[in-house]
Specification:
Blueprint lengths: L1 H23 L2 H10 L6 E8 L5 E4 L5 E2 L5 H13 L8 E3 L19 E3 H10 L3 H10 L2 H11 L6 E2 L7 H7 L2 E3 L1 H12 L6 H11 L18 E8 L2 E8 L6 E8 L11 H17 L16
Antiparallel strand pairs: 1-2, 1-10, 3-7, 4-5, 6-7, 8-9, 9-10
Length: 304
């Protein structure tokens, strides 16, 4: 009799467990997103989570993709870990050297010997995606190895810095500066939003930095300008990517879209990857906020 009771309890537990995952998958939203991907020439990964309902959509969400400039979120985390440990000061003065030059962005255009505070370099890394400043921050954080160790211990097992990181040369050849999955990048941004990265105060400052996005012509262009968002995007020849946390009126949601192996390598606004980022963002906004009548002002795209 005891064995029969245990068997029945096990069977009931299995049935309940098997019913739960489907309840969390937003089938209607998944259909809409799959339709948007139908004619895309390349590989796409999408992860969406509505934090109010807990429902998700995962399309190739655990597949590895290039991060491009989204890697600057983990770099910021590694840097704030050093600050939290007292090894750096957020407002400390730095001295720019020509040896740091990577490209002619804002930081890379500074004269040798120019003084600049660390918090300004971090702001430029996240806001305008300054590459020279980002590589400088990566080095100050202890390099890719230190950042990857923080990611691993924080539960992010797929997201990694590849560039200038010993032992990851093969990964760099395949994925570039960094690699991630849509699910992990979206959950990393959520981790910061929820105050779990490094410490509550560090998370708050990092989140503020991610809320000052200069590159707002992709997914952000499909969200009303009065809605608070945090975002980081990236682009290389065959990949376009964006991770966005949206403080929508009827519930916060987070999503990440990443492409790779794109046939369209153009750098115009009409690039298939850029267009997909806008399409996905528009679908999500109107799905989660169905009563919203807002749409981008006609002619907005001319500025880009």
């Amino acid at each position: 009799m005891r064995l029969i009771v245990l068997y029945l309890l096990f069977t009931l537990h299995t049935l309940i467990a098997n019913c739960q995952p489907s309840a969390r998958n937003d089938v209607a939203l998944e259909r809409k997103l799959m339709a948007a991907l139908a004619n895309f020439r390349g590989d796409v990964g999408i992860y969406v989570r509505n934090l109010r309902t807990g429902k998700t959509v995962a399309i190739n969400a655990d597949t590895l993709f290039p991060t491009a400039s989204m890697i600057k979120i983990p770099i910021q985390c590694g840097l704030f870990d050093k600050i939290h440990k007292g090894e750096l000061a957020y407002d400390q003065e730095l001295t720019y050297k020509d040896s740091l030059h990577y490209d002619d962005g804002i930081v890379g255009s500074l004269k040798d010997g120019t003084k600049i505070s660390l918090n300004k370099v971090v702001m430029l890394m996240e806001t305008v995606s300054d590459n020279t400043g980002s590589l400088w921050c990566q080095a100050l954080a202890g390099g890719g190895t230190a950042i990857n160790n923080w990611l691993e211990t924080s539960g992010f097992h797929q997201t990694r810095v590849n560039s200038r990181t010993p032992g990851r040369e093969g990964n760099r050849t395949q994925y570039g500066w960094g690699q991630t999955t849509p699910r992990e990048m979206a959950e990393l941004l959520t981790y910061i939003r929820q105050g779990k990265a490094i410490s509550p105060d560090a998370s708050e400052e990092m989140y503020r930095n991610l809320g000052r996005q200069f590159w707002d012509n992709d997914g952000l262009s499909q969200i009303p300008p009065d809605i608070k968002t945090a975002c980081k995007n990236g682009a290389v020849n065959q990949s376009r990517s964006e991770v966005v946390f949206v403080h929508a009126p009827h519930g916060e949601y987070v999503y990440c879209v990443i492409t790779k192996n794109q046939k369209d390598e153009s750098w115009e606004r009409t690039n298939e990857g850029y267009s997909l980022l806008r399409t996905v963002s528009s679908i999500l906004w109107h799905y989660f906020e169905p009563k919203s009548s807002w749409k981008p002002v006609e002619g907005y795209e001319k500025w880009w």
